[in-house]
Amino acid sequence: MTLLDNLKLKVICEGKAKLYVPDLSYYGHYVGNSEPSHAPVFYNPRMIFDRDLSVLVVNRFRSFVSENLRICDAFSGTGVRGIRYGLEVDGVDLIWFNDWNPLAVSLIHKNILLNPIKPSVAVSCLDARRMFFMNSNFNSRFHVIDIDPFGSPSKFIQPAIASLKDGGLMCITATDVPVLFGKYPTTCLRRYGSIPIESSFSQEIAVRILLGYISRNVSTYDFSCTPLLCYSRAHYIRVFARFDFGVDLANESVSKLGYIAFCEKCLHRFVVNGILPPDIRECPNCNSKLHFSGPLWVGPLFDPDFITLLREDATIPDLTRFLDIVLDECRGPPTFYVLDEISKILKISSPRVDDVLDELKSMGFFASRTHFHVKGVRTDAPSKIIFDVVRSSSS
Ligand SMILES: C[S@@+](CC[C@H](N)C(=O)[O-])C[C@H]1O[C@@H](n2cnc3c(N)ncnc32)[C@H](O)[C@@H]1O
Ligand SMILES: [Zn+2]
Prior knowledge:
Layout: E1 9-14, E2 17-22, H1 24-31, H2 48-62, E3 69-73, H3 80-88, E4 92-98, H4 102-114, E5 120-124, H5 128-134, E6 142-147, H6 157-162, E7 164-174, H7 177-180, H8 185-192, H9 202-219, E8 223-233, E9 236-245, H10 247-254, E10 257-262, E11 269-273, E12 291-297, H11 304-313, H12 317-329, E13 337-338, H13 339-346, H14 353-362, E14 367-370, E15 373-379, H15 383-393
Parallel strand pairs: 3-4, 3-6, 4-5, 6-7
Antiparallel strand pairs: 1-2, 7-9, 8-9, 10-11, 10-12, 13-15, 14-15
Helix pairs in contact: 2-3, 9-10, 11-12, 14-15
Residues 263, 265-266, 268, 283, 285-286, 288 line the site of zinc ion.
């Protein structure tokens, strides 16, 4: 009799991996709906996009590292991520799997046996924080750490940085998006030390709050944070960032913290670098009360050179479509406008995004789509101009 005997499993293929996963049709029936977190071991088929993207990112990151990688899948569930890294990334020495759920660990062992993984493997059943500190000796640190917990990753950042090599990559998911999107400001303050705002660009604010939190926390260990690719999709946000050791670098990345000011009335917004001056309280456009979110990351969310390489490597249509948009927006300014919101204020029909982009570009402004919102426009044009362009582009 093993721990797994009572689990209802089925075999699936994902990427190059073959996996036993909980049969959600059974657990769906059993608990009344098919939420993956109701199964005894977690596997969410809706996260395949993210795992495909993560494999792409880790593969490209590998090309910048001069030695074989040690990769840590700290919240393994079925082991799907670690197994895919083991099968789909070249030049890997070790995959370390970890989950504090003993049932998950039994399934990880079973799934490892099902796949021809070349690198060495290690499997632990520990609180991830303990596992990170166990691997904080210089030689046991990881080049890549994947942090994919339930809800907030905030309490894992400091332990994780202790086990990351200089120049290492962290791939960090947060699923507590209602908190980061501004629905529960007190919880956001408690978990991330930051005030959110509810707005049509909350997805981007959420990513910036998470990045700001990460950057502040790793800077206490003299690490800098360089975002390579950050994105939001469905029920989660995800950050891929590189971390380099050095006081000057850490100081520089802390200088990318600040606030975003936002006027709900005219949608004007602007970045405040560093500490919030006490005298800015009114919108310079319409004198309405300003709202502030922060402290948060006001630096770039993307490394354009890295994104270009990812786009060249990508073959899966969902990824190429996504990366085309990210490539378009990656050199743009912080925040974006949502055309439906402006049209609603103007009481007109919402124009086509492409028409608005063409018009803004013809006026000499930066203008792109954004992956954060289908009707989003990232631009450096002032809000008054955007309102004019939306008005003239509406049919
Ligand atoms: C969202 S699931 C991971 C899914 C998996 N990475 C995937 O892509 O399918 C989160 C996993 O983390 C485990 N977990 C949650 N908190 C943990 C902790 N503090 N230490 C170790 N594992 C933890 C849970 O048992 C669960 O299996
Ligand atoms: Zn205003």
